[in-house]
Design a protein that fits this description.
The longest helix is centred in the middle third of the chain and has 42 residues. The chain has 498 residues and is an all-alpha fold. Helix 5 packs across helix 14, helix 8 packs across helix 17 and helix 9 packs across helix 16. It has a single domain, classed as Amino acid/polyamine transporter I, CATH 1.20.1740. Helix content is 67%, strand content 0%. The chain is globular, with a radius of gyration of 24 Å. It contains 19 helices and no strands.
Length: 498
């Protein structure tokens, strides 16, 4: 349940004003709720939310950005996942995980209808009051009737606003579970960002080690690409990074074209002439857990759905962007995982990333260089939201020009920390990815979103009982899957590191 927070003097004044309105039989409107929240925001000097402007990305640009984020270096572990999961299990499972991501993102976006309206600045006007656009927004995300929307704010309006600089996902956690909920989410998100970037650093080391570019020192090998990542991570808006999305997707496509050519040179069409020698289902729970971790890691767009939404010129079209983006990812994952597995099946069994199946030739060099390019253009999409999370906790506002050097320092230190940890991590890339997917990504994608949605929706006044029950079922499924797979993949990680 939501923790009741102490009210300020302005909050109590606003409450008395609402009581006066009630005594005069004047219905409480959305505008009065927004006005009260605006007063509290002024008291806390929380101007960051109101002054932050939305980005200019189109639906297609956002879809492309989502797809590129999913089609990064994690795709190199997909043949390993298909090997562990089996052909049929992999094809069916990829569809289920994609739909699961879409539903979890839907849960987070539905949470917006229970927040005080002026906190969702993409759907309110500059005065902080809600008009036609706000009502349309509420109906879009599940509001029952316009004249009952005020009840959705009755509990959240009496709470203190979250600290300045809190992300949208953090605001959802704050109003769903209070300060403790925000603290738990922050820890999970930091773990997720750390895990993702550490996995990328591990992959980058393995790619550079096998090329003539290596200096013989892993620290020096990582210095140049990390410098580029840091520069890209200091941009002020996600919409600027979408301009690199097409380059990243082209690099991934060329990489797997080269990989496919190498497999065809070695085996021809022999792998496609019969698949009876391949598994159709996972041989053990451990194998299924490894598959789950890699696939969840690859699909993990849910924790970033608000960042993508806020980068759009038309945020209400984020669902369409997700549909297009996830569809592109599903088709691509089928081709990459199942196709590469069958192609290499006569000569190779995947126990690591796909590049390990390739000999030391100029083809392998091209693939590794292309994937390094993908890493360099994908990593900033992770550093930016993590930097914003840390900056918010440190009180570094986007509107302060003098604090630019502080924001840059936070992101530089974060990248250096991840680089240092990766240098000490002996386990292989696929096993790191699998554990991160099972724990960090699954927790923030499949557990927290339905949990927050359930907590925020428990005080709604009518209807949608089936939706609430479905949310509970999805939450229980997420808890069970995350607990079992995280334990198993962590044990596997320890074994490989030992």
């Amino acid at each position: 349940m939501v923790e009741q927070l102490p009210l300020t003097q302005i909050d109590m004044d606003a409450s008395r004003e609402r009581a006066a309105d009630d005594s005069s039989n004047t219905p409480l409107t959305t505008e009065s709720y927004a006005h009260a929240v605006e007063n509290r925001a002024l008291l806390n000097n929380d101007t960051g939310d109101r002054e932050r402007t939305k980005g200019g990305a189109t639906v297609f640009q956002t879809s492309l950005n989502m797809a590129k984020m999913c089609m990064g270096t994690g795709t190199l572990a997909l043949p390993f996942a298909a090997e562990k999961g089996g052909l049929l299990f992999n094809i069916i499972g990829l569809l289920i995980i994609g739909l699961w991501n879409y539903y979890s993102a839907n849960c987070l976006l539905r949470c917006l209808q229970y927040l005080p309206p002026d906190l969702d600045n993409n759907t309110t006007n500059t005065a902080g009051t809600a008009g036609t656009a706000e009502l349309e927004h509420q109906q879009k995300y599940g509001a029952i009737l316009p004249d009952t929307t005020t009840h959705k704010y009755k509990r959240t309006i009496d709470m203190m606003p979250p600290p300045p600089g809190t992300t949208t996902y953090g605001k959802v956690a704050w109003y769903a579970a209070g300060p403790k909920g925000l603290m738990v989410l922050d820890l999970l998100m930091l773990s997720l960002f750390l895990g993702l970037l550490i996995a990328y650093e591990v992959a980058m080391m393995s790619f550079i080690d096998a090329t003539p570019l290596t200096t013989g020192s892993r620290k020096l090998d990582l210095l140049m690409p990390n410098t580029i990542v840091i520069i890209f991570s200091c941009v002020p808006d996600y919409s600027l990074l979408t301009k690199c999305s097409g380059i990243g997707l082209v690099a991934v496509a060329l990489s797997f074209i080269v990989i496919s050519f190498q497999g065809f040179v070695e085996n021809g069409w022999s792998g496609f002439q019969g698949t009876s020698h391949l598994n159709y289902w996972p041989e053990s729970v451990s194998a299924a857990s490894s598959w789950f971790g890699v696939v969840v890691f690859g699909f993990g767009v849910v924790p970033f759905v608000f960042n993508f939404r806020e980068s759009m010129a038309s945020p209400q079209k984020v669902f369409l962007s997700m549909q297009l983006g996830l569809l592109m990812v599903y088709v691509g994952y089928i081709m990459i995982s199942t196709g590469i597995l069958i192609l290499f099946s006569p000569s190779y069994t995947f126990e690591g990333d796909v590049l390990q199946a390739m000999p030391s030739t100029w083809i392998s060099l091209i693939v590794r260089l292309l994937m390094i390019l993908v890493l360099v253009t994908t990593s900033p999409l992770l550093v930016v939201p993590c930097g914003e999370l840390i900056e918010g906790k440190l009180g570094i506002e986007d509107t302060q020009h003098a604090s630019m050097h502080k924001r840059i320092m936070v992101r530089v230190l974060f990248c250096i920390f991840c680089m240092g940890v990766s240098l000490e991590l002996p386990a292989g890339f696929v096993h790191v990815v699998s554990f991160i997917g099972c724990f960090c990504v699954a927790m923030t994608s499949f557990v927290m979103p339905p949990l927050f949605c359930i907590q925020l929706s428990t005080w709604r006044t009518s209807g949608m009982d089936f939706e609430l029950l479905f949310d509970v079922g999805v939450l229980l499924l997420g808890i069970i899957a995350t607990s079992i797979t995280s334990t198993i993949t962590f044990d596997n990680l320890l074994v490989k590191s030992g």
